[in-house]
Amino acid sequence: MNERQHIETFLRRRHFHGVNPMAALIDMDGTLYDSMGNHADAWMKMAAEEGLSARREEFFIWEGRTGADTINTLIRRTFNRDATEDEARELYRRKTVYFQQLPPVSPMPGAKEMIDTLIKAGLRRVLVTGSGQRSLIDRLGRDFPGAFTPETMVTSRDVEHGKPHPEPFIRALQKAHVKPSQAIAIENAPLGVKSAVRAGVFTVGVLTGPIPLEEMEAAGASIIYGSMSEFAEALPRLLLQLFTTFLP
Ligand code: MG
After folding, report:
1. What distance in Å separates the CA atoms of residue 186 and residue 201, rounded to the nearest whole number?
2. What is the C-alpha separation between 75 and 210, in angstroms, rounded?
3. How many Cβ atoms sit within 10 Å of the Cβ of residue 151?
């Protein structure tokens, strides 16, 4: 399918007449930063110390959930009980410390070009992350100048429910002051895609890690690109197609 056909499929499914993108709702880990490997390593270190059973690839699949959610899953699986609030806070704090001790992550190749295209096209940008990891959030201004302000970020602190619940993307739509038909979402993880799709937004899935294409399709991505560089190159064309594709 070409881009126009993907857009038409989305419009039919949502009963929208067209998409008039005024805002881009953008995930952070694995989308703007090549950070998922470090996150998985930090989780594994904490889990090993605590005797929590976990496999490294699970942290890629679970990406987007809140830290508390992930910890609860690990505790439940290992000890057959829920994590206490104190426990969840303490284990997430340790995971965060281990993440910060790892070599710094790099911006995802192509992400800067993508952001520049969105700025040039006049789309509002809103960050939508399940992370509360200050070390990355604080770097955004340096790595992506002009892209976000503190008012245009939805982090784990702003939501009760993490992805795949639609709340993070609904909050992002509110921050951008747009309707679902006036936005696009950009995500690298199946749970993030699900969250954006449930919020009713045209959702671009970008493959930047070990997640297979089929998982992104199953999550309901409106269109999928094989890398961030590929998406960045296609973005001007995709925006034009979005602005000019309508259903009767
Ligand atoms: Mg992500």
Report:
1. 10
2. 25
3. 7
> 247 CA distance to ligand 1 centroid (A)?
31
Domain boundary among 57, 79, 101: 101
Residue 11's domain spans which residues?
A: 3-35+106-244
Report the pLDDT averaged over residues 108-135: 94
CATH number where 18 lies: 3.40.50.1000
What DSSP state is assigned to residue 127?
Answer: E
In the block, tokens 């006049």 appear at 122
Mark the residues whose beta carbon lies below 5 A from ion ligand 1.
27, 29-31, 188-189
- Residue keyed to tokens 């038909």: 181
Q: What is the pTM of this model?
A: 0.93
Q: What DSSP letter does each residue of 170-221 carry, written as one string?
A: HHHHHHHT--GGGEEEEESSHHHHHHHHHTT-EEEEE--SS--HHHHHHHT-
**pLDDT score for 86:** 96
Q: How far is the CA of 173 from the centre of ligand 1 (A)?
A: 18
Question: Which two structure tokens, joined as six digits, stand for 148?
Answer: 């976000």
**Gap between the Cα atoms of 10 and 19, Å rounded:** 9
Ligand 1 centroid vs 100 CA: distance in angstroms? Answer: 18
